[in-house]
Amino acid sequence: MDIGLVSVTFRQLPPEEIVRLCRQAGLDGIEWGGDIHVPPGDLETARQVGAVTASQGLRVLAYGSYYRVGAGSDPRRDFAPVLASARALGAPLIRVWPGDRGSAAADEAYYQAAAEETRIICGMAGEYGIRVAYEYHPGTLTDCIAGARRLLDLCGDCGIRSLWQPRVIPAEENLQELEQMDGRLAHIHVFHWVKREGQTLRLPLAQGAADWKQYLAAAARIPGGHGLLLEFVPGDSPEQFIADARTLRRWAGR
Fold this sequence. Notes:
By secondary structure, the protein is α/β, with parallel strands linked by helices. The protein has nine helices and ten strands. The strands form two sheets. Strands 1-2-3-4-5-6-7-10 form an eight-stranded parallel β-barrel, surrounded by four helices. Strand 2, helix 2 and strand 3 form a beta-alpha-beta unit. Helix 7 runs parallel beside helix 8. The termini are close together.
């Protein structure tokens, strides 16, 4: 499995510094975010960031867009700049957000509209050999495994996949969700968060060893290639990122 970084972890840093940190950490590549580092439609920036990434022996693992499927967009118009930036960047996969509401607040018509739009954008991206994957996140249709599987099933065989990340729930429940991703798993966003006294805290990845060793073993049993992408380290600290990268590489036998 490729090991990389989600660039939004360091929104405050320029791409050149992020690339330097990833090389120092011994990672394989980067998911570049579309909110700060590679805005959709800015093709010159996308080409520059792709070139900087490659110049240091790293790969672009994904384009983390903020395009929302099923939220009233015209995909042939609104997805076009996202796709153009992904192509200029050299990204093999585009991350999109499934809807603008949680699964419990969405009716069948909303799910159907999201699935139809997904089929359209997968077709657009597929013309250039680029895959599309859903974010797995609260406030979207993929806020839990039931919502994710429902939407993926509605999409049929268009090639859509889904990312996965642990929710702040017991590890055994997260493990059950991950195991149900079947062969439709794309990348995994890696971080260790816990809830204490009503607050969600970011902790060093090493403190989540008991949980993450189970998740990694489960991911290894799921067919298809999927990367492990570090995200949101405590204190937005480059030093903590280096430590977390070392931890993840050790767990992955790297």
